[in-house]
């Protein structure tokens, strides 16, 4: 059988929960990345790109073995070299891996990186929840001041405001190694008294990660949790004063927030500040950004104790709320009226492209045909060259918006 013979004509679809980003959406996507990157750079962040594929152990040790992400949602496999690897479900772990691998924990100083790209979670797809989705994130190392927590929140607000997005900021403190363990014990005692009434997931979590019970989505569980002890009432002095200070800075900067002591986040590496920006305009999957402090994560990954804080924005969710601004940028369409004008027409088009979006039709066509194609392509300026124009070194130019027609000298055009 010839190697180029077509054997199977069944069309292939993209995988469930994964999609192409194209046309208006890709225009919005690049518009978002350009402007979010600009804002991040103004806040002192530089770009980092880490691999999509990492050792599975990286996520087990950072995101946490008891988290749903690691337990149920990883795209994990053994590669041809027998390595246990997985597609990254989030961006923080890879950046921390880089930080430790390059021994920056020993170099001292502080580091600020931003990144964007695809993340993979084998979740049940629904509106706003994909298996391949994109995040824009920032990570900061070596700054333990609560002013940096506020700075991160102010920066996210600036990004969301630039795109005209309304939000509610939910804020919590998850305490530290001193106050979280006794709080957890207390919580377990409380939950155990009515554990038969809690759902199956909560019962599992009481054993593996009791604070995750607090953000169970089951309405019955939420009712039962009304009297549960709150972490915000059980913070040690240092966590308490940092949390108070953070609220004070946010108040001073006119940033409203809701303290939500049930906000525990789905990743296990957080301590102290945890936050989420939610929108009530995009349905059940309402979190458009989330983040917090992770002062022990560098140690979890074998580095020297270094404070860290960061966030990630879910780009697909955010783009549901973003509108492309109206901009009247010219789009030029250039065509030839006959065979002998094509070379000159292409030369002129290439010069024009240095400053303006310029579309070219290679085949010679009549006036009417050119205008038809230009209209389909959305051009607002039609420029045509034929034998007459060649002789006089000119080009016919019509501005569709103003209906103005000119015969311009080629140099002038
Ligand atoms: P996360 O809350 O898991 O945090 O994800 C951040 C954002 O990604 C969410 O708020 C949401 O907008 C979006 N997102 C998450 N899962 C999906 C999905 N399946 N489909 C569509 N969008 C989704 C993190 O990933 C942390 N690494 C954030 C961070 C950075 N914390 C500190 N530094």
Structure characterization notes:
By secondary structure, the chain is an alpha+beta fold. The protein folds into two domains: 23-179 and 235-319, Bira Bifunctional Protein, Domain 2 (BirA Bifunctional Protein, domain 2), CATH 3.30.930; 331-409, Rossmann fold (3-Layer(aba) Sandwich). Helix content is 35%, strand content 22%. The protein is built from 15 helices and 16 strands. The protein has helices at 24-42, 56-62, 68-72, 92-101, 104-107, 146-162, 180-192, 200-208, 219-224, 237-252, 297-300, 315-319, 342-352, 367-377, 387-392, and strands spanning 46-47, 53-55, 75-78, 84-87, 111-120, 132-141, 168-173, 258-259, 271-278, 287-293, 308-314, 331-336, 357-361, 381-385, 394-399, 404-409. It has an eight-stranded mixed beta sheet with strand order 1-5-6-11-10-9-7-8. Helix 13 links the parallel strand 12 and strand 13. Helix 1 (24-42) packs antiparallel against helix 6 and helix 6 (146-162) runs parallel beside helix 10 (237-252). The longest helix is centred in the first third of the chain and has 19 residues, at 24-42. The protein is elongated. It starts with 23 loop residues before the first helix and ends with a strand. The model has no long low-confidence stretch (mean pLDDT 95). It binds histidyl-adenosine monophosphate. Histidyl-adenosine monophosphate is lined by residues 90-92, 121, 123, 128-130, 133, 135, 137, 139, 266-267, 287-292, 310-312, 314, 316-317.
